[in-house]
Automatic annotation (TrEMBL), chains A, B:
It holds the Pfam family TetR_N. The lineage of its organism: Bacteria, Bacillati, Actinomycetota, Actinomycetes, Propionibacteriales. SUPFAM superfamilies: Homeodomain-like, Tetracyclin repressor-like, C-terminal domain. It comes from Mumia xiangluensis. Residues 37-56 bind DNA. This is TetR/AcrR family transcriptional regulator. It comes from the Bacteria. Keywords: DNA-binding, Transcription, Transcription regulation. InterPro entries: Homeodomain-like_sf (IPR009057), HTH-type_TetR-like_transc_reg (IPR050109), HTH_TetR (IPR001647), Tet_transcr_reg_TetR-rel_C_sf (IPR036271).
DNA sequence: CCTAATTCGTACGGTGGTGTACGAGTTGAC
DNA sequence: GTCAACTCGTACACCACCGTACGAATTAGG
């Protein structure tokens, strides 16, 4: 699940298992509460706090690994999306995949903000957003998406919807089953070319 | 600016001035960073930390007053909005006012979440959201807003847009001048009845 | 088995925030 | 001008968390 950097001595099986458990638990915990403590993460992973520090030098180091791992996974999922063909359909597919990523990672961004270097974060963000941007740009040039708003704002708006839905689900105000559909419908409504400005009576 | 509860002995002029300064500084600080320290708030208000504790028993007490104050102000601003007439226009006016409120208070909600009782928060939230809900409900029944999404989700979605725009402005990714227009356009696009699902070729 | 790797409890020092106590200095109000 | 109200620095106890040190028990792997 979690690859170790090459060049390090091979870990024992239980150690590798624990590292995986820690990273996965940390992802879950940080997604829910960016300020969660190391103790809580250790408990959630089913290991002692000391074991955690045995594998990760510091909170920052753990967050860095978690973010990198989440980023790799997100990158893999999003790059598997077919973004060709009709921009509407492409965006729909992209939104579905983005929903999964957003819901799984949630508050991770905020945790990363406090613990990681800004430029690293910037690159990570760019990497993920660029895909959506290019679909959006294509849809705009093909006349399928509205162009009367800055492209960056459209991206921000869609992200806001994703984030809002994820929060609502975490709070129990929305079921996880309905969320992706609602996000997609809403996002497309946001991006679609508006019907003629209804000049007549 | 900040009213004192009746029945307490009248404060001296400088005390009242300081209390106002504290509440206003706290509003600003908490809106930017919900986890800001009491020291930082005191400094921002131009008073010593001890003066702050002289007027507010605890962090919770301060947050409570700040929230109450912000709530009163928001209530006043939103209740002044004309929500009659065409639902589109009513919603536009409401969104403009909501933008101001959201931008000014920002992270206050998060600070309140950690410091105040859930039921108080619930009531506060309900109070503010109900107005939008009723406009939305009317617009839906009049066929001006789409009904194929839960009303609660539409509210959540619009709030997400407001919040996302506020964050973007705070980060400098969007100018405060453009934000309200973009939020309004986007929110209305979200709520509007979609153009016929284009069945024919 | 045997050994080295690994786990993990306890205990400690450091940091940063909250809230309290004391008290000296300052200033508004009458 | 006087006095009480107010300001505000310092100092302290307290707590939660981070990160380290030590060491004993456990366990994977040959």
């Amino acid at each position: 699940m979690v690859e170790l950097p090459a060049g390090t001595p091979p870990r024992r099986a239980d150690a590798r298992r624990n590292i995986s458990a820690i990273v996965e638990a940390a992802t879950r915990c940080l997604a829910e509460d960016p300020g969660v403590s190391m103790s809580a993460i250790a408990t959630a992973a089913g290991v002692g706090r000391m074991t955690l520090y045995g594998h990760f030098e510091s909170r920052s180091a753990l967050v860095a690994v978690v973010v990198e791992h989440a980023l790799d996974r997100a990158e893999a999922e999003l790059s598997a999306v077919d973004v060709t063909g009709d921009p509407y359909d492409a965006m729909t597919r992209l939104l579905d995949a983005s929903w999964t990523v957003t819901f799984r990672n949630g508050g991770l961004v905020q945790a990363a903000d406090q613990a990681l270097s800004p430029d690293l974060l910037e690159r990570a963000h760019t990497q993920l957003v660029d895909r959506a941007k290019s679909v959006l740009r294509r849809g705009r040039s093909e006349g399928r998406f509205r162009k009367d708003m800055p492209l960056d704002w459209q991206v921000t708006a869609v992200q806001s919807l994703l984030h809002g839905a994820a929060t609502a689900v975490h709070q129990g105000a929305l079921t996880a089953a309905r969320a992706p559909g609602l996000v997609t419908t809403s996002a497309l409504a946001l991006l679609a070319v508006p019907p003629a400005p209804s000049s007549g009576p």
